[in-house]
Amino acid sequence: MNKYTIANFNKDFPNDDTCLDWLKDYLYPEGIFCKYCSQVTKHHRVSNRPCYACDYCGNHVYPMAGTIFEKSTTPLKLWFYAIYLISSTRCGISAKQLQRELGVTYKTAWRMFHQIRLLLDETPNPMSGEVELDETYIGGKRQGKRGRGAEGKTPVFGIARREGKVVAVSTPDLQIATVYPIVKEHILPKSTIYTDEYSIYDGLRKQGYSHKRVHHASKVWAIGNAHTNTIEGFWSLLKRSINGVYHSVSGKHLQSYINEYSFRYNHREDNSPLFKTILERI
User: Fold this and answer.
1) Mean pLDDT of the chain
2) Which residues on adjacent β-strands are paired with residue 131?
3) Domains recognised in the chain with CATH numbers
4) Is the predicted pLDDT of residue 218 greater than 90, yes or no?
5) From the CB of residue 174, how many other CB atoms can be counted at a distance below 10 Å?
6) How far apart are the C-alpha atoms of 226 and 169, rounded to whole Å?
7) What share of the chain is helix, strand, coil (3-state, %, to 5)?
8) Is 198:137 a contact under the CB 8 Å cutoff?
9) Taking the CB of residue 43, how many other CB atoms lie within 10 A of it?
10) 75-132: per-residue pLDDT in tens?
11) Which residues contact 31 (CB under 8 A, 6 or more apart)?
12) Following DSSP, what letter does each residue of 167-233 receive, concatenated?
């Protein structure tokens, strides 16, 4: 991945005007189509307003309409800088840290934080080849049982293609009726699936998959090529990041946090900087 530094950012986006020009050029790469002139026409920037006017009929076009910036009074440069901050940290950044960096109120930082993370919700193409399945539980530290059946924790089901992408879904439970539709949606038939000994995976062969497993309860972590190290590595990254940056998350917002780290993981090998990858999802 190409490194994109703060110097690069300040050079590319020194002020609100350059941010708006980038947004206009990205949304209208062939030029702005004027609905009144019924053709692509030349537009000029309207002073003191975040819009462009048709040179022929004067119709105004607002590039921020329909984006996360719409109706926001926060300067566009700060929005772009917030995206840069979120993308430039390995483990993410909290809304409180955004507040300190941007010099805005916590309410504004929290809204920006969650609006930007909406851009990180994506669904990879269905997987094939060698795929691993596993589940984990996320929640605050509590006395009592850990892992499966632990009270007060939210189950998360994960799919990882070896040397590929991951999909992780916060679920109400880990019953077959909940898990198998997720498997069918994201894994193509005849793929080879690796799991542990959990009984919900017993029927995978009947679903048209090749199925191999390891018995973690017997402290067997790998048998030849059969293991779940890929998805477990993602769980480790996810939990360390949540604990280190956010400390705890509510079940209501958990999926958006999962989406953030799935997005980071899935784009870890991109040639384009993560900042531009996120920005182009505007």
Assistant:
1) 91
2) 161, 193
3) 29-62 (no CATH), 130-253 (3.30.420.10)
4) no
5) 16
6) 23
7) 40, 15, 45
8) no
9) 20
10) 999 999 999 999 988 778 888 999 999 999 999 999 999 999 999 999 899 999 999 9
11) 40, 41, 42, 43
12) EEEE-S---HHHHHHHHHHHB-TT-EEEE-S-GGGTTTGGGT-EEEE--GGGT---BTTB--HHHHH
pTM of the model: 0.87
User: Distance between CA atoms of 123 and 255, rounded to whole angstroms?
Assistant: 13
- Residues 32, 41 contacting (CB under 8 angstroms): yes
Map 65-121 to HEC letters. CCCCCCCCCCCHHHHHHHHHHHHHCCCCCCHHHHHHHHCCCHHHHHHHHHHHHHCCC
149-207 tens-digit pLDDT: 555 689 999 999 999 999 999 999 999 999 999 999 999 999 999 999 999 999 999 99
Answer for the pair 16, 75: CB distance below 8 angstroms, yes or no.
yes
Is the CB of residue 12 less than 8 Å from the CB of residue 77?
A: no
Q: At 25, is the secondary structure helix, strand, or coil?
A: helix
Euclidean distance between CA atoms 167 and 148, whole angstroms? 20
